[in-house]
TrEMBL record:
Catalytic activity from the UniProt record: [E2 ubiquitin-conjugating enzyme]-S-ubiquitinyl-L-cysteine + [acceptor protein]-L-cysteine = [E2 ubiquitin-conjugating enzyme]-L-cysteine + [acceptor protein]-S-ubiquitinyl-L-cysteine
Name recorded for this polypeptide: RING-type E3 ubiquitin transferase (cysteine targeting)
Source organism of the structure: Thalictrum thalictroides
Membrane topology: Multi-pass membrane protein
Primary enzyme class: transferase
GO cellular component: peroxisomal membrane
Subcellular location, principal: membrane
Length: 347
């Protein structure tokens, strides 16, 4: 029995695996394993706040205006109107400075920095096959994108401002209908209308998708994304809340003050006044409205307190039921000092 087993074992040839066989198996199975792992992972979409993007643009405008105000103060000793003719150049210079020390050196603009935003090259992001969080990862702008951004935002605005001022100074719109200047004026108006329509369409698309707040960003595929995952926006709302409260309070005062009668309020608060003796000892020969000696003295009837004619006449015409500023009695008529009685306008 043992001999038969040994004979059968010797008859069968045992094939040993090659030394690098596991490497071949790994190279054959690795792509399949990677595809399975990638398919199991899900992307983390992070939407960029539209409010942050709009606020960043507004902050950039405000900062540029503050820099312009400080720069204008340097030339205050020059003759008036000196900077008016160079205003487009001044604005272009300030915009270039902001671009040079922010976008050109791969840093966010002051408004974007406050809103925790930065520019990303959207052309380098292919969402298929790559797991990129929408609002964080991605490379910055290329050199060509930075240069084109400067030419469009700084140079384009400067050229357009100069064309508008030059055409208005030369009165291209008032020239003859078939003249070359009038045709160029019509062309500029059409370009401006087309740009406004395109900007409005881009605004609607931006409100719907949250991408590319301006036409320049859409043309260059420069998208605003979050610069840091640790904060959403670096703005304190305390000053903003105080400003809103003060604005609402001032609007309420502007609404209520014209409706208040100062003389009536004074009469109501007079009993609570501490200085009653001084109030009772006031000179009754002066007009209680203007606190001066009446040039054309008139009596308010029936209380017979003395007023200036124009003070008493205007108050009676403005208030339907005017009351005397001294005794709070209704004034039904007015009489000149030593003259006849005349009715008030409301009576």
């Amino acid at each position: 029995m043992l001999s038969e087993t040994l004979a059968s074992t010797s008859s069968t040839t045992v094939s040993l695996p090659q030394q690098n066989a596991w490497i071949d198996v790994y190279q054959r199975l690795h792509p399949q394993w990677k595809s399975i792992v990638d398919s199991s992972q899900t992307t983390i979409p992070i939407s960029i706040s539209r409010v942050n993007q709009v606020d960043a643009s507004r902050l950039d405008v405000e900062i540029s205006a503050m820099l312009k105000e400080q720069l204008v103060k340097v030339f205050t000793l020059l003759k008036p109107g000196f900077l008016f003719q160079y205003e487009p150049e001044l604005e272009a210079f300030l915009e270039f400075l902001i671009w040079r020390f922010s976008i050109w050196v791969d840093k966010p603009t002051p408004g974007n920095s406050l809103m925790n935003l930065r520019y990303r090259d959207e052309r380098a992001i292919t969402m298929r096959g790559k797991h990129v969080r929408t609002g964080l990862e991605g490379p910055g702008l290329t050199t060509s994108q930075k240069i084109w951004y400067c030419l469009a935002s700084v140079g384009g605005q400067y050229i357009w401002a100069r064309l508008q001022s030059f055409s208005a100074f030369r009165r291209w719109g008032d020239s003859e209908q078939r003249s070359y200047a009038h045709q160029l004026w019509d062309f500029l108006q059409r370009v401006e209308g087309f740009y406004k329509a395109a900007s409005f369409s881009n605004l609607l698309i931006f409100l719907y998708t949250g991408r590319y707040r301006s036409l320049i960003e859409r043309a260059l595929r420069a998208r605003l994304v979050y610069g840091s995952p640790n904060m959403n926006r670096a703005v304190s709302f305390e000053y903003m809340n105080r400003q809103l409260v003060w604005n609402e309070f001032s609007e309420m005062l502007l609404l209520l003050l014209p409706l208040l009668n100062s003389s009536s309020i004074r009469k109501i608060l007079l009993p609570f006044s501490r200085d009653k003796d001084s109030a009772s000892a006031t000179d009754e020969t002066t007009c209680p409205i203007c606190q001066a000696n009446p040039t054309i003295p008139f009596f308010a009837l029936p209380c017979q307190h003395r007023y200036c004619y124009y003070c008493l006449r205007t108050r009676c015409a403005a208030v339907t039921s005017f009351r005397c500023s001294r005794c709070n009695e209704p004034v039904i008529a007015m009489q000149r000092f030593g003259g006849s009685i005349s009715k008030t306008p409301q009576s």
